[in-house]
Amino acid sequence: MQRINIYLLTAGLLMCLFSCKNNPARISLDGEWEFALDSTDTGINENWAGQNFKNTIQLPGTTDDAGYGTPNKLKPAIQKPQVLHLTRKNSYVGPAWYSKEVDIPSGWKGKAIELKLERVIWQTSVWVDGKQVEGMQESLVAPHLYDLTEQLTPGRHKITIRVDNRKRYDITAGDMAHAYTNETQIMWNGIIGEISLTAKDAVSIRDLQAYPDNKNKQVKVKCLVNNTGTATSGTLKADIRTATDPVIQVQQHVTLQPGENRIELICPIEGEVKVWNEFTPTLYTLRASIETDPHKDIREIKFGFRDLGKNGPALLLNDQKIFLRGTLECCIFPLTGYPPMEHEGWEKVFTTAREWGLNHLRFHSWCPPEAAFEVADSLGFYLQVELPLWSTNLCNDKRAPYLYAEADRILEEYGNHPSFCLFSLGNELQYDFEFLGSLLNHVKEKDPRHLYTTTSFTFEKGHGDWPEADDDFFITQWTKKGWVRGQGVFNTESPRFDKDYSASVEGMDVPLITHEIGQYAVYPDLKEIGKYTGVLDPLNFKGVKEDLEKKGLAGKADDYLMATGKLAALLYKEEIERAMKTPGISGFQLLDLHDFPGQGTALVGLLNAFWESKGVTKAAAFRQSCAPVTPLARFTKAVYTTSEPFEAAIEVVNYSDKTIENAVIGWKLTAPDGQAVAQGEFPARSLPVGENSPAGDIRCPLDPITEAKELTLSATLKGSSYTNEWKIWVYPASLTVDKGDIVVTDRFAIAEKALQEGKKVLFNPPYESLKGLEGKFVPVFWSPVHFPKQAGTMGLLLDPAHPAFAHFPTDSHTDWQWWRLTTQSKTLCIDSLYTEVTPLIECVDNFANNRRLTNLFETNCLNGKLVVCSMDLLREQEKNPEKKQLLYSIIEYMKSGKFNPAQHTSPAAIGAFLTSGQTSSREKPESIY
Fold first, then answer.
1. pTM
2. Alpha carbons 518 and 605: distance in angstroms, whole number
3. Judging by DSSP bridges, how do beta strands 639-641 and 723-731 pair with one another?
4. What is the helix (H) or strand (E) element at residue 726, kind and residue range?
5. Residue 417 and residue 411: Cα distance in Å, rounded?
6. Secondary structure of residue 436 in the 3-state scheme
7. Which of these, 669, 635, 710, 726, lies nearest to 885 by C-alpha position?
8. Taking phi first (over 0 means left), then psi (-120 to 50 degrees means alpha), and beta for anything else, what does residue 365 get?
9. What integer is the mean pLDDT of 649-665?
10. What is each CA distance from 453 to 190, 312, 424, 469, 602, in whole angstroms?
11. H helices within 582-670, ranges in order?
């Protein structure tokens, strides 16, 4: 008898498995589809839905993946369009048809059947067995869903899908919004992500939303139940649990009318509520089931207890202040041209961002797929999502219903995710703010789980410098009181590390997040070319490589990369620290931690477009000033003399999840050999969450230093990994410049006479009298192609071991001690005489020009030896000791036997740099627009 029971049980299990296999609840449509391009748009009129197609394609995938479309014939070049962005190897914009036969199980008889196309650009229509299904879908942000209940009876059927990736609405100027563009994501045709058929009973849960309430320890559950039959009654159950513990189970008797039924439940939470944040990203599972006779359906979602709010300018999460350390994500995935639809691709993005100290990503003018939210949920990342919108002519026209619908779809599809924190209507929106205000109020009323803002900055006159009336938070690069990012500061104001943006944000009554800070261009990494093995060809990179080869500069490419990258890194550091020092700022959004390969090849990242380091700095070094707990220093300048003390105030910003008690901050001022010039520690103190807590003041005499030195100040929270450091430069106060036999002059006639007499000459004319580019400390902003109205150099490149700098400590790249020297200079182009002079300093040109540039070179001229310096060394030396120190170092070199120029040039070549008058106009930060 026992054996018979075992046999019966086994047989029952096998029958159940067989039944499940032959009557699955979901059928994947992944695989090979028949396919045809419809470039003349005749497929509907010619009834292509009733035909077979000769070509095949793999879905999920795109026509670019499969190599369909018009092959690229452009060659590498630094010209438009190649230099605008990466180039599609095969391009197609227009309708395309996809067809596949599918067998519908007998067990699906009487079921509601839904077709899901997870992500498409832009419009889809569906046919079954040659007959068109009513309606069409046009979302760029959410799955396209079709009810095929009437069409799909048990048996074999043919499903045909027409995908049209042509523009349907004017959502952006120049097709730059990242939901529909060729700048980053491409205008692909295809279907990506989940492609499936799902069968549901006549009574099914169509939507499930959780509204957690931390303060009241409960969850409001909103359930949309669809009933395709007659009126009935049953039981709705809700089960809430964490990964390890059941929390609550509730049930409610419900009466269901035909059609849609909206039901709400309140689920109290027993015991401790485990909150979701970047440190403890605890997720709860809500499992809802509806059961009637004879139907049953189950749906699960994940959510987190995260109460997002504001208190004046403070951004609050679970009643604690938070600070967003963010960067943009502009749908940059250069192997495919579309976003990852699985976890793996997003895990690389978020784990890399976390390694570099970030806790926040802004999705600029697009919304990522479900996989991105799921990974962000699990890692505790704070996301800002945007409508597919970057418009300068927005108004209440035919676009309005589409935008309202897209906003609703974003909230319904992704609103449960705790990582979905912020929602902006789009990027830099302009024109009709009355329409934008109405749309903002619509989304705020629809879903209170997020914070909302009208636009991520705007250039619209009368707007953009102060929040709109209904904004929950505000994103800007300036306020009506001043700049809040370095673009308007770092080249116009001498370096001060005691400054913040408090004056600019005074009176702000909502949290402020600084807009797209950085945008410091880095020279292209030509080693990256080999990584482009997918659908995009880096003709822009290849064009730069060919140009360098033609000009004999290919060997400089890596040096250019490192010099410009290190300058960008130090500027990003100061950008971040100024924001973190400002009590009225709640976060920053970098543009960008990684490269942006479009908009004129805007390579502004310390990482490349693949989220891989370029090697210009390490993640640990970047994280020193970009961490939940960050020591900060306030001091007045970068350059000191030995006759003055070094004074600094040390503070620690704590945006961790708890107060740090008995915190001891140690500090040290060290020489390059690691020897401490001075050190100490401050008394233990408490570091509350959300505050910049003063640790103490440093006052260190510098008179024991007898020669020019670069010193490093470090501050460390003892017993932790939180540390930060800054450089200063100290020069002897009593320095005497002994010119010896060197003729130092700012007049060409004197220089020429001395050279004729066989003397050694340092020619330092007033930089205002020179022909050349405006000398700048900061590099190219964003891209020299996208913003051509800028001086356009990218920093200094030099050999720190060269004897000309033996008494002027420097790295191989621009640092803060060069600020006065570079901003009071002209950059000279030596393309026509590069074989006649030797640069001691190269000024790296932008990749669009690749000229040989310098502000310090040596040569032989007439009977003498010559150094030409286009940086001002002779004026205001007492106020600017770096000028005197560099002058001293150059002259000591010229007096030595090591000064032996190899090239020879003429006085006429030197005189050609001079103008008949003086020019002193300077570029304003906002003039590039």
1. 0.95
2. 9
3. parallel
4. strand 723-731
5. 10
6. helix
7. 710
8. left
9. 97
10. 33, 15, 5, 10, 27
11. 619-623
Report the pLDDT value the prediction gives residue 265, as an integer from 0 to 100: 95
Mean predicted confidence (pLDDT) in 857-862: 98
Beta strand segments in 257-340, E: 259-268, 284-292, 296-303, 308-311, 314-317, 320-321, 324-329
Matching residue, tokens 């008889």:
109
224: tokens are: 């949309």
Pair of tokens at residue 218: 């409960």
* Mean pLDDT lowest among 122-126, 262-266, 919-923: 919-923
Can you tell me the mean pLDDT for 616-641?
98
Query: How high is the pLDDT of residue 8?
Result: 42
Contact present, 726 and 638 (Cβ < 8 Å) = no
Give the model's confidence band at 248: pLDDT under 50 very low, under 70 low, under 90 confident, else very high.
confident
| Peptide bond just before 81 cis, omega within 30 deg | yes
Helix, strand or coil, per DSSP, at residue 756: helix
Q: Is the dihedral of CA 810, 816, 822, 824 positive or negative?
A: negative
Annotate 277-313 with b (16+ C-beta within 10 A) or e (fewer): bbeebbbbbbebbbbbeebebebebbbbbbbbebeeb
Question: Cis bond leading into 495, ω under 30°?
Answer: no
Query: How far apart are the two ends of the chain, measured CA to CA in Å?
Result: 88
Report residue 776 as tokens: 């700048």
Helix, coil or strand: residue 782 = coil
3-state secondary structure of 903: coil
* Digit-coded pLDDT (tens) for 43-93: 999 999 999 999 999 999 999 999 999 999 999 999 999 999 999 999 999
Closest CA to 254 of 301, 289, 286, 220: 289
For 129-156, how does the pLDDT look when each residue is reduced to its tens digit (9 = 90+)? 999 999 999 999 999 999 999 999 999 9
C-alpha distance from residue 26 to each of 107, 142, 265 (Å)? 12, 19, 28
Least Cα distance to 699 among 776, 644, 619, 762 occurs for 644
Quick one: what percent of the chain has pLDDT higher than 70? 96
Phi-psi region of 155 (alpha: psi -120 to 50; beta: other; left: phi over 0): left
* Higher-scoring residue by pLDDT: 918, 522: 522
Nearest to 239 by CA among 217, 213, 269: 269
Backbone angles phi, psi at 755, to 5 degrees: -65, -40
Inform me whether the pLDDT recorded for 185 exceeds 60.
yes
CA 708 to chain centroid: 39
Q: Are 669 and 711 in contact (CB under 8 A)?
A: yes
Q: Give mean pLDDT, residues 479-495.
A: 94
Asked whether the predicted pLDDT for residue 13 surpasses 70, the reply is: no
